[in-house]
Amino acid sequence: MKPVATSAATRTADTVPLTKSPAALLQGRNLGLQGQGRWIWRGLELAMAAGERVALTGPSGSGKTTLMRALAGLVPLTEGELVLEQRPLQHWSMPEYRSRIAYLAQRPELGDGDTVQAVLSAPFSYRCHRNQDYPHSLIEQALHQLGHDSGFLQRPVGTLSGGEQQITALLRLLALQPALLLLDEPTAALDPRAALAVEQLLDAWQRDTPGRAWLWSSHDSDQITRMCARRITLP
C-alpha cells in the first residue's frame, strides 16, 4: 500500500487559519482518494486564500493531476471535505461549483464545436451561465496578447495543434471568469515564446481582479518560481 500522504511539508504549507476568514477561497480537509486497492493520497490538508498564486508540486506519480480533478469536482473523494467560498461542496450545485473553480487539463477536451468560436461560446448556452454575456472584448484582447488575430476564432477545431488546443481551452475558461483556476501543465504543449505569452496573459487576468487565484502544476521549475508565491507539495 502506498504510504499515507500526511507529510509535514504538505501540512506546513497550509497552516494559515482560513476557516473564519472572509478571504478564504478553497479548503480541503482530511482529503483522501483510494484507487485500485491503494491510497493515492490520504490525510491531505490544503487551503488557498483569495488572490493567491500557489504551485502544486511533487514527484511523478504523486497524484497531482488526480488532486486537481478532485478539487474541480471531477473525481469523487473517498474521504474528506471540500469547502469553496465558505460553502461545503454538497451545498453547491455542480454546474455552479464548476463555474467558480475551473480546471485546465493537460490534454483538454474541446467538445463538439466546429470552430474555435463555437467552442468558446458554447458554455454560455448552459443554464448556469445564461446570466453572463459572452465577453467579446476580453477574448479579442487575450488573442492579441497571445499573438493571434480574430481569424483564429474561425479555425476548425480539427486543424488545431496541441498547443492551440490548450490556448482555446484556456480562453474558454477565462471567458467564464472563475474565481479559481486549476492549471495542470498549462503550457506543456507550447514553445517557450507562446508559454511566456500565456504567463503574461494569466498574470494580467489575476491582477485585473486581485481576488482571483490559481493552483498551478508544472515540470518547469523556473515557471513555478515566476508564477507562484508558495507551494503545496505532495510526497
TrEMBL record:
Q: Which UniProt keywords apply?
A: ATP-binding, Nucleotide-binding
Q: Where is the ABC transporter domain?
A: 26-235
Instruction: Tell me one GO molecular function of this protein.
Output: ATP hydrolysis activity
Q: What parts of the sequence cross the membrane?
A: none
Which superkingdom is the protein from? Bacteria
| Pfam families, per the entry | ABC_tran (PF00005)
Q: Please name the PANTHER family in this protein's record.
A: ABC TRANSPORT PROTEIN ATP-BINDING COMPONENT-RELATED, ABC TRANSPORTER DOMAIN-CONTAINING PROTEIN
Q: What is the protein's name according to its record?
A: ABC transporter domain-containing protein
Native source organism of the sequence: Marinobacterium aestuarii
Traced from the root, the source organism's taxonomic lineage reads: Bacteria, Pseudomonadati, Pseudomonadota, Gammaproteobacteria, Oceanospirillales
